[in-house]
Design goal:
single chain; mainly alpha
Length: about 190
């Protein structure tokens, strides 16, 4: 498997630009606290959306007379029992962003809190719930959601290796930005 480095570098550069937009509202060493978790959340969301679509197609092939509502309910039940992770809400980053902006924080928190335990552990490790409060206070939640709501991070666009390359490149840049020595970001 080979990497398309120019494509990956461009994507990492675009993500880096969004981190640069935090300047003035966050300190440089805090940029990664905003950006890295949203990238992970968006990647997981893309995986889950793909899983839902594939599962719905399989179910519909076996039971073509299901209504759309029945199909959605059945897929949601299968998600919580058979998918590697799940989200009990019907929200996505796009839906959170496009709904009433007065409910943006509430809906985003509901979305984050809707993930299964294994994803919640990741979110907790990032201490992202506290970061959400800081993003809201600094009027950065809407711009960040807008930036990432459609970012192509799914496994059909980026392999695990490619996603790892982008994540590692961002870690390197964040480390350099915050003045860490070369190599410290790997630990």
């Amino acid at each position: 498997l080979s990497l398309n480095k120019p494509k990956l570098d461009n994507l990492a550069g675009d993500i880096w630009k969004s981190a640069e937009r935090l300047r003035g509202k966050f300190k440089a060493y805090e940029f990664q606290n905003v950006i890295l978790p949203i990238i992970v959340i968006r990647r997981l969301e893309c995986v889950l959306i793909r899983w839902r679509e594939e599962t719905a197609a399989e179910v519909l092939a076996k039971r073509p007379k299901l209504t759309e509502k029945e199909l959605a309910k059945l897929v949601k039940g299968l998600e919580t029992s058979t998918a590697p992770f799940s989200n009990k809400t019907n929200l996505t980053l796009r839906k959170v962003y496009e709904e009433d902006h007065t409910l943006l924080e509430e809906n985003f928190r509901a979305y984050i809190n809707g993930f299964s335990k294994n994803v919640d552990d990741i979110i907790e490790h990032f201490n992202y719930r506290a970061t959400i409060g800081t993003m809201v206070k600094n009027n950065r939640l809407a711009p960040i959601l807008n930036q990432y709501k459609e970012l192509e991070l799914g496994p059909d666009q980026l392999s695990g290796l490619e996603m790892g390359y982008i994540y590692e490149e961002l870690l390197r840049r964040f480390s350099e930005q915050s003045g860490e020595e070369a190599g410290e970001h790997f630990t």
